[in-house]
Amino acid sequence: MNIFKNNIFIFFVLIIGLSMNVNSAEGTTFKNLKPGFSFEGPFGKFDKESLKRGYQVYSEVCSSCHGMKQLSFRNLSQPGGPEFPTEMVKEIASGYSITDGFNEYGEPLERSMLPSDRFPKPYGSKEEAKGANNGAYPPDLSLIVKARLDGYNYLYSLLKGYEEEIPEDMDIGDLSYNPWYPGGAIAMYQPLYEDSVEYEDGTPATVDQMSYDVANFLTWAAEPTMEERKRLGFIVMGFLIIFVILMYLSVSRLFRDVH
Ligand code: HEC
């Protein structure tokens, strides 16, 4: 009887331990700044106002060099994201155009974009992108937060971390100095300066605020269903706990008379 009790207890602790540990890799970081984001932790949710501002920073500053190909315009209106009204998303999409199909003479046809279209690419080809950027390719940003260790804190640190004073022993040529970037020399010029955007909600657009908002937005972009995942996780955990309790009760009942 005691053996059963112990085994079940260990099983229970293991399951809980394992499920809690899944995200701990996010925390392994060397020295990134940690401003603290609302989506952190098992109960965390996105700050929608910050997501909206972050979209504004992406679209007005970053999108001229970086695409976001995994996202469609309509994602902007879905639950768990910035939740822009559908009418507004239609309007945003229609501001871009795309070649789609051919007319009767075989000439490519242009049309304005729809909410179901993916975000437009800033350059026609990789070569063109490199040519315009010091030979470096500006990566697609839709999954960048997942592609870097401690992604959102790194992004925040990188964007606000440009320094004018270059260490004496470094020769970086045409590149910019950013101690957060591995190696310190980055081909992206400092993209954000005080008042690079004028926030529609009146929030002062400091470099710190814009870096924070766009890091927030790109975290959502990398996983638009994060809130749903967390919610489901709790339902599954709850079910598991009830299941383990029922198992325990039935097993102890079954072996009640075994000595
Ligand atoms: C003028 C073009 C340009 C703009 C505007 C721009 N970037 Fe970049 N970005 C680049 C280039 C080029 C690179 C590649 C740098 C390299 O390889 O050294 C890059 C790299 C990056 C990286 C990858 C860094 C890494 O660890 O590899 C991130 C993240 C990034 N940019 C985010 C942003 C964000 C967010 C914005 C808007 C606030 C932005 N960029 C605006 C050109 C740009």
Key terms for this structure?
two-stranded antiparallel ribbon; mainly alpha; 259 residues; Cytochrome Bc1 Complex, Chain D, domain 2; binds heme C; 41% helix
Structure notes:
With 259 residues, the protein is mostly helical. The chain has a domain at 29-70 and 117-222: Cytochrome Bc1 Complex, Chain D, domain 2 (Orthogonal Bundle). The protein has eight helices and four strands, in the order H-H-H-E-E-H-H-H-E-E-H-H. The protein has helices at residues 2-21, 48-60, 86-94, 126-131, 144-147, 151-160, 207-222, 226-254, and strands at residues 97-102, 108-112, 176-177, 185-186. The strands form two sheets. The protein has a two-stranded antiparallel sheet. It has a two-stranded antiparallel sheet with strand order 3-4. A hairpin with a 5-residue loop joins strand 1 and strand 2. Helix 2 crosses helix 7 (207-222) and helix 6 packs antiparallel against helix 7 (207-222). The N and C termini lie close together (8 Å). Mean pLDDT is 91; it is low at 24-29. It binds heme C. Residues 57, 61-62, 64-66, 133, 136, 138-139, 141, 144, 148, 155, 159, 186-188, 191-192, 214 line the site of heme C (HEC).
